[in-house]
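Thread: "does anyone have the structure for this chain?"

Original post by V.I.:
We have the sequence but no experimental structure in hand. Need at least a predicted one for the grant figures.
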Amino acid sequence: MTNMTRSLYLSNVRLADDQTVSVSVVDGRIEALGANVAAPPGAHVEDGGGALLLPGFVEGHTHIDKSNWGRPWYRNEVGPLLTDRINNEREWRKTSGHDAAAQSLALSRAFVQAGTTRLRTHVDIDTDARLRYLEGVLATRQTMRDTLEMQIVAFPQSGMLIRPGTVELLGSALAEGADVLGALDPALIDGDPVASLDATFALAERHGKPIDIHLHEPGEVGAFTLKLLLDRVETMGMQGRVVVSHGFCLGALPERERDALLDRIARLRVALLTSAPPSRTVPPLKLCREKGITMFGGNDGIRDTWSPYGVPDMLERAMLIGMRYDLRRDDDLMIAFDCVSEAAARGCGFTDYGLHAGARADLVLVDAQTIAHAVASRPVRKLVVASGRIVARDGALA
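Reply from O.Q.:
Generated one for you, tokens below.
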């Protein structure tokens, strides 16, 4: 997959402001980027042909361990409740021969092929599978280590307190390589938001890990849980180390209550993740940005037992964010792209990101006039560079 050249020179590429530049890459990092940059000695030279230069994309929230990507069609006949989907998935994964290692690897490669070079994935930890799915994704992370920077969230998809032994398994997962502690609907799934959040924050503190919580809870229930969570962020000094994924309640509350919560979220530097689903209320993107909240995007599940939808292409997710938030102007579509690039890197804590000297050389070339054009048309990726190595060309792995 990888071109092992240690230095690379991209000429004749365009930035978002339409400036034509060249990029010098040495030892996996951008050495220089500008109009008069010389090629490093012995560099592999690529003529960009006037293509638009973008930073490698960031997937802020997905579930690569449970995808059915590339497998025969899954016939979805699951019930309408969240618990129906959870229970159905757990049983299907036990009985179908689904292989978390093989599926996570197939999906990771598809992400890279489409330009994603950083990814945060939630991996199910439960008392049936224990750490089996984690072990599969850890193997994928090792295989993809030179190409895809991966954060793993230890995620109690079936609940935590309602399944005794899950807290201990989450601790084991963090000890064995998971980077982030996940959580799920402390009120509606665990049935005790105070005890559930206390256990989550205690575990995160014990292992020195950040938190990423799925909060599907609607309206006032979600607001109550969110207030409890923010209390713990503040008292335990977890500012800047918590992500609230989905946060559907923030799109359904009265304006005054919503704004008070958003002001507190901004002050505590809690980040928000959205997949911009068309069927649920969503946090207000532009207002969050105005208040200084980092809000970013992700696919959530891709082609799994929950949903037949989704593809491992962050330009498509940016387009769906644009459609969900009625982003039509070119400058607004740049906000949608920010959700799968700079904002996502910031929200997940990926460092050395972007198009500047010293950043990791994760680069994508597309034939598009502007970023807005790229989001709307989702062109084939002309070239994908990860850590300074060419990993995909013309939509195919190199």
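V.I.: this helps a lot. The mean pLDDT is 96.
O.Q.: and The radius of gyration is 21 Å.
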